[in-house]
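re: ur question from yesterday

yeah so i grabbed the chain u mentioned. its 176 aa long if i counted rite. heres the sequnce exactly as i have it in my notes:
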Amino acid sequence: MAKQDQMISWLNDAYAMEQSVEQVLQNHVKDAKNHPQLQAKLQEHLQQTKHHADLVKGCIQRLNGSTSSLKSGLAQVMGTIQGVATGMFQDELVKNGIQDYATENFEIATYTALIAAARDLGDTDTARVCEEIRQDEEGMARWLLEHLPTIVTETMQRQQGAPASEANVQPGMQAQ
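ran it thru and got these structure tokens back, copy pasting raw so excuse formatting
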């Protein structure tokens, strides 16, 4: 397989991944309806994810490739299933947070690999786009890592029937 064809294939994987993540985030935004700051951050990242898919699609097209409807279709189905899988649990926000953090790190690894491949190919435009996307993914991963303890504490207190007191909860589920 030629280098450019391999790059297009990997970009198609990333495009499908973004579409899958979009489906998951749509569900996680709904799950966070009683947590406005978390919901706002997830909504912001959902918009970034849609933009990432568009950017990756542009890279594919710039390399004279086309998006794989099979990969995209499978990704959307898997994203839908994955996004609703935690909905029946009382601790869905914790499960969602763990899943989202793992997903962000998978995306970081994906874009790190794509940056290396694009540089090897001499495709500075794709490398730049992937670096931009990776920065967004790193930012969301940091936010999730910082706020996951708060989500866990609030969930534990809610399951015990006690309101989350400010003394026991870390500051700020603030979208940054």
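noticed a couple things. Helices lie at 3-31, 36-62, 69-84, 92-121, 124-159. also Confidence is low (pLDDT under 50) at residues 164-172.
anyway ttyl
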